[in-house]
Design brief:
By secondary structure, this protein is α/β, with parallel strands linked by helices. Helices cover 43% and strands 21% of the residues. The chain folds into 3 domains: 6-94, Winged helix-like DNA-binding domain superfamily/Winged helix DNA-binding domain (Arc Repressor Mutant, subunit A, Orthogonal Bundle), CATH 1.10.10.10; 104-174 and 278-305, Periplasmic binding protein-like II (D-Maltodextrin-Binding Protein, domain 2, 3-Layer(aba) Sandwich), CATH 3.40.190.10; 177-275, D-Maltodextrin-Binding Protein, domain 2 (3-Layer(aba) Sandwich). The chain contains 12 helices and 12 strands. The protein has a 5-stranded mixed sheet with strand order 4-3-5-12-6.
């Protein structure tokens, strides 16, 4: 029996099977051609190519038109199911409906974005896509498994210094760094000079050895060093320490604004010049036309653009 090498399937014109399906249903090359808006010679040519490919006559001419061979009859239900599945995929892409979708979206982002993104995003999903769900993947898992390229991740929100092959990106927001202290801190009513800033105890977030040195590098360039009382990997821990102690911290402005509205914190401008950082939404090129990912990106963009 002739078997198609699956490794060579990419070289097979799958439109040939669309023609065969029509011929098997119509039992006529003429009617199949009319149904597919092809010429009769195009249908005959497709059948000839399939006969070589599959090693079978597929249909033979009889007094009743074209009669399928036993092998063609055996293929017919499988062929019909495969074409219906492909039609379903195309239908899902063109008729995607947020209201009825039961999709699970998967996002990845650094811990600091969760507090001002997740509550608003879940509220938006409950309103616009009530039957969907959201799963958050850790950055460690994203990088370790190549989840975006493997199709296991829909969106990554963050700063990527170098885009891997196949990644797409669009700006989400620009952010800078500010200082925070508890509202009744002894230094709250005094101007924040560079000397006062380095004299205060600091709580600091260092996610990795390479990330989180911007403030200390800027201080070193002007000949200063701050006193670090706490180094933690999570912003949530540092925020809690600042609210309940004399420690101050340098954090992204968007995060500071979020917590300052909910906790007894005061925001102050740093006596340093630090560059802004661009935060982007990233997805894989295979999801360029995915209506679900497009809808999710739009929701995330709207939420991040809203004043905090």
């Amino acid at each position: 029996m002739y078997v198609i090498d699956l490794m060579n399937l990419a070289s097979v014109d799958l439109n040939l099977f669309v023609v065969l399906h029509a011929v098997l249903e119509e039992r006529s090359a003429t009617r199949a051609a009319a149904r597919l808006h092809l010429t009769q010679s195009a249908v005959s040519n497709a059948l000839a190519r399939l006969r070589v490919l599959l090693g079978d006559q597929l249909v033979v001419r009889t007094g009743r038109g074209l009669t399928p061979t036993p092998r063609a009859l055996a293929m017919q239900p499988q062929l019909e199911a495969a074409l219906k599945a492909l039609e379903g995929v195309a239908q899902d892409l063109t008729d995607f409906d947020l209201v009825t979708s039961t999709r699970e979206w998967v996002m990845a982002f650094a811990e600091l974005y969760g507090p001002f993104l997740l509550p608003a995003l879940l509220q938006r999903l409950q309103q616009q896509a009530p039957n969907t769900s959201l799963r958050v993947m850790t950055l460690d898992q994203m990088y370790a498994t190549g989840a975006l390229a493997r199709g296991e991740l829909d969106l990554y929100l963050g700063i990527a210094s170098k885009l891997p092959a196949g990644w797409r990106s669009e700006p989400a927001f620009a952010d800078d760094t500010v200082g925070i202290m508890r509202a009744d801190h002894p230094a709250a009513r005094q101007p924040m000079t560079l000397e006062r800033f380095v004299s205060l105890p600091h709580a600091h977030v260092r996610v990795t050895p390479q990330r989180g040195r911007e403030v200390d590098d800027a201080l070193a360039r002007v000949g200063h060093m701050r006193r670090l009382m706490l180094i933690a990997p999570h912003f949530s821990s540092v925020i809690a320490v600042v609210e309940s102690s004399d420690c101050v911290a340098a954090v992204p402005r968007k995060l500071a604004n979020h917590y300052a509205q909910r906790l007894a914190l005061r925001i102050f401008e740093l006596p340093l010049t630090l560059p802004k950082h661009e935060v982007n939404l990233h997805w894989h090129t295979r999801a360029d036309a995915d209506p679900g990912v497009i809808a999710l990106r739009a929701m995330v963009r709207d939420i991040l653009a809203a004043p905090q």
